[in-house]
Design goal:
By secondary structure, the protein is mainly alpha-helical. The protein contains six helices and three strands, in the order ααβαββααα. The longest helix is centred in the last third of the chain and has 23 residues, at 114-136. The two termini are 26 Å apart.
């Protein structure tokens, strides 16, 4: 890599960060759930996604979460790196996000029964549907397109 903080280096880092962003699973939804929990329940937490090896073998699940117990604590979502395709891993993240919302919003612990898991699946399916609607709607995506690049800050 070029000397840090020069123009070529800035371009290289931007390319690398963008490439990594394409690999992120449900990043905007994770930030949105943090905002939702803060605004609706005054519960600040940072949700950290770990794409890990051995989630299935260690936990006998495709994914799992460890919700924050106290305001300000970190919340973790773990998804198995080797299981399924990217769509299935994104679905798992969405499913775990609802477990997190449920753990903060409810006075009783989240229901981990078959019925509780189905409720989380309904949330995950709907959230994924909304992502698809956005991604296939040219008008909605247009609001995110930079139209006047390059900008200058000075």
């Amino acid at each position: 890599m070029s000397e840090p903080f020069d123009c070529d280096s800035a371009r290289e880092v931007a390319n690398e960060v963008y490439s990594l962003s394409e690999q992120c699973l449900m990043a905007h939804s994770i930030r949105a759930v943090e905002k939702y929990l803060l605004e609706k329940y005054a519960f600040p937490t940072q949700i950290i996604l770990e794409i890990s090896d051995n989630v299935v073998s260690d936990m006998d699940r495709l994914s799992w979460c460890s919700p924050a117990q106290n305001k300000g604590d970190k919340t973790f979502i773990f998804v198995d790196r080797e299981w399924g395709d990217q769509d299935q891993r994104r679905f798992c993240v969405a499913h775990e996000l609802y477990h997190i919302i449920w753990s903060v919003a409810s006075v009783t612990p989240p229901d981990r029964s078959r019925n509780g898991e189905e409720v989380c699946d309904i949330y995950a399916n709907r959230l994924c549907e909304l992502h698809n609607e956005f991604n296939t709607d040219t008008a909605k995506r247009a609001s995110l397109i930079f139209t006047k690049i390059p900008y200058r800050s000075v």
